[in-house]
Amino acid sequence: MKPPALPLVSIITPSFNQAEYLEATIQSVLRQDYPNIEYIVIDGGSTDGSVDIIKKYTLASDSLSSGNYRHRIHSWVSESDKGQTDAINKGFARANGDILAWLNSDDTYHPKAVGEAVLFLMENPDVAMVYADCDFIDEQGRVIGEFASRQTDYQKLRSGYVHIPQQTMFFRAKYWKELGPLDPSFYFAMDYDLWVRIAKYAPIKYLPGKTWANFRIHTSSKTNVNDERGWKEMLRVHYRDGGSFFAPIVAKYYLRKIIGPLWKWRIKK
Q: What is the secondary structure of 144-179 as a DSSP string?
């Protein structure tokens, strides 16, 4: 009996003026041991040398022969856009994969992330999305902590129990086609909004003990400077879907306003 074909995985990297970290991000995708990856980079018109980095790793480049890379960038563009959410939507509009993911231009994958995610989804056809553990790293790539990943579901997400490191998630393209794209009015919580939409219709699964990505913390990262804005946007999802003011997610928002300045302590080991 002929074994089933390995599904195509489309990975999008949205980027804008992140040359300092972009190359490490690209390399972490190109060095995946999974053989069937479509990699798409959507740059927002960077002026810091990002485009030169992207060109080094394209299908037309001859500069990869000594880099021990299994993959190359299949498609890319550098043009003005409306921000990260718009860039991700543009990327997925180009994607042909059965499984989708996005990796921001300051984060990186661990080498076996894609293969392990695909294997789980192939063995569990009822699961819509899978995610795993994630390390926090600093500007130099040193591990400084661990993301508090936990199993969650639709009801828990609605209560603000998120615990999904976006860097590690892989989801089936059918749910993007049915429930996407990302809401362009969200600057921060577009991933949370998508998770809520997916989890309402199918299971999402956390795999403990498998670390798939690194979440870089640096002074200009969105998470570092916009944590409160993210929670405000999560409340928009809550109220949009009929949530009450007297709900756990609302209480968590006000609690985080108090403890927000302690964010950096939260990621220390």
A: EEE-------HHHHHTT-----GGG-EEEHHHHHHH
Mean pLDDT computed over every residue of the chain: 88
The amino acid occupying position 185 is: S
Residue-wise pLDDT for 119-140, tens only, equals 999 999 999 999 999 999 999 9
Query: Tell me: the pLDDT tens digits for 140-165?
Result: 999 999 999 999 999 999 988 899 99
Pair of tokens at residue 251:
């209480």
Q: Is 109 helix (H, G, I), strand (E, B) or coil?
A: strand
Residue 15 near residue 105 (C-beta atoms within 8 A): yes
* Residue among 87, 89, 95, 78 at smallest CA distance from 37: 95
Return all residues near 142 (Cβ < 8 A) that are at least 6 apart.
Answer: none
Can you list the alpha helix ranges (DSSP code H) found in the chain? 19-30, 50-56, 84-94, 113-123, 154-158, 173-179, 190-199, 222-225, 227-240, 248-259, 263-266
Hey, what domains does the chain have and what are their CATH numbers? 9-266 (3.90.550.10)
Per the listing, tokens 């299908």 go with: 59
Query: Are the C-beta atoms of 149 and 164 separated by less than 8 Å?
Result: yes
CB-based contacts of 239, cutoff 8 Å, min separation 6: none
pLDDT of residue 70: 78
- pTM for the model stands at 0.87
